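Sequence, C-alpha cells quoted for completeness.
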Amino acid sequence: MAGGAPARYWHRVDTERIGCDLCPRRCHLRDGQRGYCFVRRNTGGSMELTAYGRTSGFQMDPIEKKPLYHVAPGSRVLSFGTVGCNLRCRFCQNWELSTARAMEAMAGRATPTQIADAARAAGCLGVAYTYNDPIVFAEYAIDTAVACRDLGLANIAVTAGYIEPAPRRDLFAVMDAANIDLKAFTAGFYRRVTGGRLATVLETLEFAVHESPAWVEVTTLVIPGFNDSPREVRELTRWVAGHLGPDVPLHFSAFHPAARMRDVPPTPVATLNRARDIAREAGLRYVYLGNVHTDDGGTTLCPHCHGALVERRGYAIVGYRLTADGRCPDCATRIPGRWGEGSGGREWGAGWGGPGVRAGGR
C-alpha cells in the first residue's frame, strides 16, 4: 500500500465492500472510501490505516496534563497523535486535528521504534497517545507501545473509550495507564453532542478497570446546561463508585467555549465544587478539579486522616509526602496508584501492575 499500513480490524462484506470492526460505527466501505474517522480506508479491497507512521506532532508534557494524578507525579511523557476521530463532540478542544480531512495535517513521520527511542533519549517516563483518540490509530499505537515496552517505558492512552471488544482488548493490553472520558451520564447527551453511545463507553470503563493491566482515571468535562445538573452528577458518581470502585480517581474539568459550542459559557468554579461534594458523598475518595485555578482542586488527600499528600498548582507538584511504597506518612494508609514506578531503575511493561495493584485500604 502507498503510505499508511494494513489495518487489523476489518472483514469482507461482499465482493465490493469491506467492513471496519474497530468501533461501533461499523463502517462499510467501497474501494477508495474512507471511514467516519477519516484515517481508515478501503484500498484495493483491504483496510488501510492511512495514519500509520505519520503524526500531527510531538510534545513533552507533564503526566498531570493527561490528566493522571496517581501515576508517577512530576514525570514527563512524550505525547503524540495523528488526525481524525470516531466521535464528533461539539465541544472538542482539539477539533483542528479530530476533524481534519487532509493528510497534510500530519507533517511528521515516525516509526514506532523511532518514537520509543525519542522518548527514552528525552528522559521521559513513556509515551502518551493523545490529541486525537488513539482508538482510530490503534495499530500504530499498539506497535509503538510494544516498542516502548521493549525499552522499559510506560504507555498511556487518553481516550473516549468508543471501541469494540476485540481491539479494546488489544489496545488496553499494552497500556500501563489510561485516562478515559465519561462525557456525561445520559444516552441523549452522547447521541446529540458526541454522536456516540453511552453504553459502549461504560463497557470500556468496566473492562479497563477490572480486566486490563492499565491504571485508570476518569475525566468528565462539566458543561453548563448540558451535563451539570446535581441529579446527573449524582447518578454518574454513584455509577463510578459502584461499578469501577471508590479508589478510581475522577477529574471534573471546566468547560471553555470551543469548536461548535462557543456560545456556551465557561463552567463556574462553584459548579465544579458542587460536583466534587456530590462525588465524595457517593463514596469516591479521589476527586479532582481541572481547567481552573483553585487552591485544593489538584490535591491528593488521605481518605483516612485527610492529610494533604500530593499538592499541585496547575501541573506543578508543590508538595509531596507519600512514602516510597505509596502510603500516608501519618496513618500508613496505602493510597492506590503507581507512585514512582518507571523511575529509579524499575521498568514498566508486560506483567507489571494489573488489577491487584489498585487495592487501597490500610
Summary: Confidence is low (pLDDT under 50) at residues 341-346, 350-362. The radius of gyration is 20 Å. Residues 128 and 156 are 5 Å apart (CA to CA). The longest helix spans residues 230-244.
